[in-house]
Amino acid sequence: MTNHWDNYHRHWTLLGAPLRPTPETVGIVERALDLDEADVLLLGVTPELAGLGKTMLAIDGSAAMVSGVWPGDSAGRRAITGNWLDLPLSRASVGAVIGDGCLTVVDSAQARHALLGEVARVLKPEGSAVIRVFAGLEAFEDLADIKAEALAGEIGNFHALKWRIAMACATSDADRAIKVQAIRDAFDKTFPDREALAARTGWSMASIGTIDVYAGSETTYCFATLAMLINEARDWFGDVHVVPSGSYPLAERCPLLMLESPKRR
Asked: Residue 75 class from Cβ within 10 Å (0-12 exposed, 13-18 middle, 19+ buried)?
């Protein structure tokens, strides 16, 4: 089996929204959290978010992602490898937490709950968190309908298509989980001729080929609904609300989950 994250960084420059935040989204995050004087924890090494805050500590589970994607340490910014479910930080030690898709790249509802609990633990009482989520629909889409929309030019880019396939094929339980290998399998079954898809959509073969990073991977993603995510967050935060994250392809399924008033346990 391949090491998913050790290969993922090699495709980073080919990825776009909704997988990566746009400048518009970064601006919304910055305004929402008032980060100028904040000591920020970043879950992951998303380079678009690396310049936010007075200081920043980024934590990622993959050393390859840290070395391959992080723009570099500076006097007020550094990245380390670590476990989001057991953060190497003391209670109430950071002013803000930012995550981009972090609730999707854990593998179960239990892991999402644990991650939210760790965010609540390390935040100062007056601190806030914002996490961009990839929220599945309440009712599952049909792959045939997704295929028809793609071939009609109605899906903004390949990455939006990939996420819609993933959401459509996730489990129907609380996890809303899918192995990334299964995303690739569903894509290949739905679109057996990649060159024909590229010709119909104008998408590059290189962009379409990014799905091959999932080949042989044991990694599991979760695409919980927005209602699920809100309910899970309310176990740990007194104030949970949602803010739109911009106007890129599939942005309507990728809002910002705003978390304030952490609960102590």
From this structure: exposed
